[in-house]
């Protein structure tokens, strides 16, 4: 069988969504088949678009909401009048109804959660105060004013790989490559690009939630200078200036104060990191930049230095 892909309209909850449908095709009979991996990839492309269209939170976002209020999945399901296992199922990937999705969005902000608990939960005042205790702290921490990474938070869509920005994963991806390859900044940017786009090609989701822009030296995380400076300030990495034939360049090194933590990642994410690291381990910064220039993701978006949609992951040509 050969591997193929084609643009195809799929119906989900009585609506049509266009995806890159992946399949195997028998060379003798021409019949097309999906295996489990392709079935999941095709399904994820559909539900990602549904989530964005109706502002349905993604599983990681749903888990984060529950965690910040310091509640169990069973408890928050009970408070919201959902089925006993509903919240846990949503964290595991089940798609909420639009009514439940709206309710989850409402309580995602501390003020919305407080309003719901006080006005709609039916709890006694003492129990309300107990449930709302974490909200007092969240009120003071909710401002992005002192967060140097605030500019990376966006609603998930095709430009983020249908992933909300995940600061811990982003830090650890950078640490992963810094510890193994100590790359120049140009190479680090390409390693980040290929890691996210390779994982999206495999699963229809990126790893970090970063956006990528096309610039003359190839695809890079949007606002990458702010990203690296913030991680230097946090003591995650350090930068060392080196003189090369191309002039002064910055090398991204681990600080030694913290180390890569694989526990933040899924198996598929770790496999993507290993694949990209092994593919480019012997490539210099200029070589990987030249390789990235062969990608349609860069060639189609360099004019205007546009943000690169993750649909280009299905057309990667060099990995």
- Structural class computed from helices and strand pairing: alpha+beta
Q: Poorly predicted ranges (pLDDT <50, ≥5 residues)?
A: none
**Beta-strand percentage?**
15-25%
Please report the distance between the alpha carbons of the first and last residues: 21 Å
- Which series of helices and strands comes N to C? EEEHHHHHHHHHHEEHEEHHH
Major sheet size, sense and barrel closure: 3 strands, antiparallel
Number of domains: 3
What's the number of extended β-strand segments? 7
Shape: globular
Walk me through what this model shows.
With 319 residues, this protein is an alpha+beta fold. Helix content is 47%, strand content 15%. The strands form three sheets. Strands 1-2-3 form a three-stranded antiparallel β-sheet, with helices on one face. It is globular and about 70 Å long. The relative contact order is 0.10.
Could you give the topology of this structure?
Elements (H helix, E strand, L loop, with lengths): L1 E11 L2 E11 L6 E2 L2 H18 L5 H10 L4 H7 L6 H6 L6 H11 L1 H11 L4 H7 L1 H9 L25 H15 L3 H19 L8 E4 L2 E4 L2 H10 L3 E8 L2 E8 L12 H14 L4 H8 L3 H4 L20
Antiparallel strand pairs: 1-2, 2-3, 4-5, 6-7
Helix pairs in contact: 10-12, 10-13
Descriptive labels:
319 residues, alpha+beta, Ubiquitin-like (UB roll), 3 domains, three-stranded antiparallel β-sheet, two-stranded antiparallel ribbon, 14 helices, 7 strands, 15% strand
Please sum up the structure shown.
The protein is of the alpha+beta class and 319 residues long. Helices cover 47% and strands 15% of the residues. It has helices spanning 36-53, 59-68, 73-79, 86-91, 98-108, 110-120, 125-131, 133-141, 167-181, 185-203, 224-233, 267-280, 285-292, 296-299; strands at 2-12, 15-25, 32-33, 212-215, 218-221, 237-244, 247-254.
């Amino acid at each position: 069988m050969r591997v193929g892909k084609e643009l195809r309209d799929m119906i989900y909850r009585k609506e049509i969504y266009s995806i890159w449908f992946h399949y195997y095709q028998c060379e003798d009979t021409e019949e097309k088949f999906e295996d489990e991996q392709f079935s999941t990839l095709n399904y994820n492309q559909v539900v990602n678009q549904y989530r964005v269209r109706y502002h349905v939170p993604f599983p990681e976002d749903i888990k984060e909401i529950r965690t910040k209020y310091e509640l169990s999945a069973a408890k928050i399901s009970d408070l919201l009048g959902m089925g006993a296992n509903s919240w846990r199922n949503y964290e595991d990937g089940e798609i909420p109804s639009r009514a439940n999705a709206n309710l989850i969005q409402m309580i995602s902000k501390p003020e919305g959660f407080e309003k719901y608990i006080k006005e709609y939960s039916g709890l006694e005042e003492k129990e309300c105060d107990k449930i709302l205790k974490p909200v007092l702290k969240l009120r003071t921490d909710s401002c992005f004013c002192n967060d140097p990474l605030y500019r990376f938070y966006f609603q998930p869509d095709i430009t983020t790989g249908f992933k909300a920005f995940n600061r811990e994963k982003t830090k650890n991806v950078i640490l992963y490559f810094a510890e193994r390859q100590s790359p120049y900044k140009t190479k680090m940017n390409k390693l980040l690009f290929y890691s996210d786009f390779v994982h999206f090609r495999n699963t229809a989701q990126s790893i970090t939630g970063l956006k990528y822009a096309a610039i003359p030296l190839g695809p890079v995380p949007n606002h990458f200078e702010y990203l690296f400076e913030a991680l230097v300030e946090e003591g995650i990495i350090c930068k060392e200036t080196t003189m090369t034939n191309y002039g002064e360049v910055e090398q991204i090194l681990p600080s030694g104060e913290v180390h890569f933590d694989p526990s933040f990642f899924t198996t598929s994410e770790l496999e993507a990191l290993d694949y990209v690291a092994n593919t480019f381990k012997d490539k210099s910064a200029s070589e990987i930049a030249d390789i990235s220039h062969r990608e349609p993701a860069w060639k189609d978006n360099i004019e205007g230095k546009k943000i690169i949609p993750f649909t280009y992951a299905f057309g990667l040509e060099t990995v």
